[in-house]
Amino acid sequence: MDTLTTILQRRSIRQYRPQPIPDEDLQRILEACRRAPSASNRQPWHFVIVGDPEQKARLAEACRGQTWMADAAYIVVAVGLPEVSANWYRVDVAIAMENLVLAAHGLGYGTCWIGALASEEIRTLCGLPEGTEVVACTPLGVSADVSGEMRPRKEWDEVFSRERYGQRLSL
Asked: Structurally, what CATH architecture does the domain formed by 3-159 represent?
């Protein structure tokens, strides 16, 4: 799948089959994440890959009770390192997560960006050191969602302007 097709077809998956992801696919997905650009190449991130069923259930509960997440092969916890890049770590982690999400979709796996979470609870569950911040989580697994429906997007004029905010961009 080419990059643009991957971007245009990707969607959030909230139903997973209890199937494993082959190690070679997981490695490719994580390598795409690792290769993400970051401010001054500081790479202010760490990712905890959780596959243990009991730990996934606890993490899903810490993500405001989104228990469906635990059905995925993994839950990925994206951790920011403010000490490494105080001003940009959240943006840099988001860029790396987007690489992960797109690589997963390109290889046929589902994800769902999760920002509704209890950071301190997840910090404890994952044994994160002080000074780190949970930025986001995502389930990663084989989709069981057969709806195929894309969620609607804002209209072109609501998203883009030419030269100044509010000036119509027509192409």
From this structure: 3-Layer(aba) Sandwich (3.40)
Q: Exposed, middle or buried, 89 (CB in 10 Å: 0-12/13-18/19+)?
A: buried
Tens of pLDDT, residues 47-102: 999 999 999 999 999 999 999 999 999 999 999 999 999 999 999 999 999 999 99
Give the rounded distance of the alpha carbon of 4 from its chain centre.
18
Task: Please state, in angstroms and rounded to a whole number, the distance separating the CA atoms of residues 125 and 109.
Answer: 25
Domain ranges of the chain: 3-159
Q: Where are the alpha helices (DSSP H) in the chain?
A: 3-9, 23-34, 53-62, 89-106, 119-126, 156-159
Asked whether 75 and 28 are in contact (CB, 8 A), the reply is no
Q: Mean pLDDT score of the chain, rounded to an integer?
A: 96
CA gap 140, 51 in Å, rounded: 10
For residue 46, the SS3 value is strand
pLDDT above 70 covers what percent of the chain? 99
Map residue 140 onto helix, strand or coil: strand
